């Protein structure tokens, strides 16, 4: 059984960084999805892909995977680069304007 351990990224629907501090362990899908004949929804017999376990650290998630005999891959989070900005820069004389070339 394969699992993936990662730290989730911030969603585009929020400005805060909530729910990005925990490490997530989720199972890789083992069964392909099949469309339902009546409704057309995609279903699967694999219920493990619905399970997400959260841990405070990556080491806790790795030890859980090793304890249960799961093969795991760890995705390291990308560093967040913050570009310093000032409100006064919007009114600077040398500022590039989108309507001039």
List keywords for this structure.
4-stranded mixed beta sheet; 101 residues; two-stranded antiparallel ribbon; mainly beta; 1 helix; flat
Unreliable stretches, pLDDT < 50, 5 or more residues? none
- One letter per element, helices H and strands E, the order comes to EEEEEHE
- Gyration radius (Cα, Å) is 22 Å
Fraction of helical residues: under 10%
Strand order, biggest sheet? 5-2-1-6
What fraction of residues sit in β-strands?
Answer: 15-25%
Distance between the termini: 57 Å
Written account of the structure:
By secondary structure, this protein is mainly beta. It has one helix and six strands; from the N terminus they run E-E-E-E-E-H-E. The strands form two sheets. The protein has a four-stranded mixed sheet with strand order 5-2-1-6, with helices on one face. Strands 3-4 form a two-stranded antiparallel sheet. The longest helix is centred in the middle third of the chain and has 10 residues, at about 60-65. The model has no long low-confidence stretch (mean pLDDT about 85).
């Amino acid at each position: 059984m394969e699992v993936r351990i990662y730290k989730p990224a911030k969603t585009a629907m929020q400005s805060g960084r909530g729910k990005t501090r925990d490490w997530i362990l989720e199972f890789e899908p083992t069964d392909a999805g099949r469309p339902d004949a009546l409704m057309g929804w995609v279903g699967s017999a694999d219920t493990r892909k619905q399970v997400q376990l959260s841990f405070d650290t990556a080491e806790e998630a790795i030890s859980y995977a090793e304890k249960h005999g799961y093969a795991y891959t760890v995705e390291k989070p990308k560093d967040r680069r913050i570009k310093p900005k000032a409100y006064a820069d919007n009114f600077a004389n040398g500022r590039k304007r989108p309507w001039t070339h």
